[in-house]
Amino acid sequence: DKVVGLYFSAHWCPPCRQFTPVLRDFYGELEDSGEFEVVFVSFDRSEADLKKYMDEAHGDWYYVPFGSPKIQELATKYGVSGIPALIIIKGDGKEITKNGRADVQGKPPKAALSAWKAA
């Protein structure tokens, strides 16, 4: 069963730019397992900003296209009011935790993944 991190972020947000490399390294350690994916949900102000941010800082992640109504739908569904936010969900969309950012910063990747999968 795959675990997905919905990463709400934007290039204009300094805390986001600090957290993104941490998430990229975390993802890099789990990428080969095929059990964890990140989907970038951009709050960038233009498509150019989104692309630049992805090129400069991101892992090889999926992303919601700029301007898509899905961005606000996801933010509303998972109660995202500030960024950066990392919502961990199951493949079926069921929420595991809103505190993915704390887990990524505080736990080894394999331990975090095991805890998420056990939830």
TrEMBL record:
SUPFAM superfamilies (UniProt xref): Thioredoxin-like
Database matches in Pfam families: Thioredoxin_8 (PF13905)
EC number: 1.8.1.8
Regions annotated as coiled coil: none
Key word Oxidoreductase present: yes
GO molecular function, one term: protein-disulfide reductase [NAD(P)H] activity
Superkingdom of origin: Eukaryota
Enzyme class: oxidoreductase
Keyword set, alphabetical order: NAD, Oxidoreductase, Repeat
Reactions it catalyzes: [protein]-dithiol + NAD(+) = [protein]-disulfide + NADH + H(+); [protein]-dithiol + NADP(+) = [protein]-disulfide + NADPH + H(+)
InterPro entries: Nucleoredoxin-like, Thioredoxin-like_fold, Thioredoxin-like_sf, Thioredoxin_domain
Family note: Belongs to the nucleoredoxin family.
Protein name (record): protein-disulfide reductase
Organism: Nippostrongylus brasiliensis
